[in-house]
TrEMBL record:
This is DUF2384 domain-containing protein. Residues 77-130 form the Antitoxin Xre/MbcA/ParS-like toxin-binding domain. It comes from the Bacteria. It comes from Dyella ginsengisoli. Residues 13-73 form the Antitoxin Xre-like helix-turn-helix domain. Pfam families: Xre-like-HTH, Xre_MbcA_ParS_C.
Length: 130
């Protein structure tokens, strides 16, 4: 029997722990409530979420890894755009008049539950960076 080759759609098993640890540090910096954290991760079952949070390790699926990747990109872009970390972290919750947000905050857009909204916010911030 041949070993199954890892494909582009299968995350490396060793990405889970670092991704989850990074996510929970980011969630702390952004002062995200548990419900917001779960929504940003794609609404994993409550027991799974708390296991990840407690152990800071696990084997999240490709979707969760993709979501965390976008969130880390958003975090990094904000740190570049706003040299003051408090200002960078606060930007997420501030109402935004850009057409993309329609007067709502970026966090509200990100909490829609769609991974595409994380992508759109990341793309917006990357464009602002130039």
């Amino acid at each position: 029997m041949q070993a199954q080759a890892r494909t582009e759609t299968t995350p490396a098993p060793d990405l889970g722990g670092p991704a989850l640890r990074s996510f929970f540090r980011l969630a702390e910096a952004w002062q995200l409530r548990v419900a917001e954290q779960r929504k940003l991760l794609g609404d994993p079952p409550e027991s799974t979420f708390y296991k990840w949070k407690r152990e800071q390790d696990g084997a999240p699926g490709r979707d969760v890894i993709e979501r965390i990747s976008y969130l880390l990109g958003i975090f990094k872009a904000l740190q570049i755009l706003f040299p003051d970390p408090a200002q960078a972290d606060a930007w997420l919750r501030k109402p935004n008049q850009a057409a993309l947000f329609g007067g709502h905050s970026a966090l509200e857009r990100m909490l829609s539950g769609n991974v595409a909204d994380l992508f759109v916010v990341r793309q917006y911030l990357d464009a602002q960076r130039g």
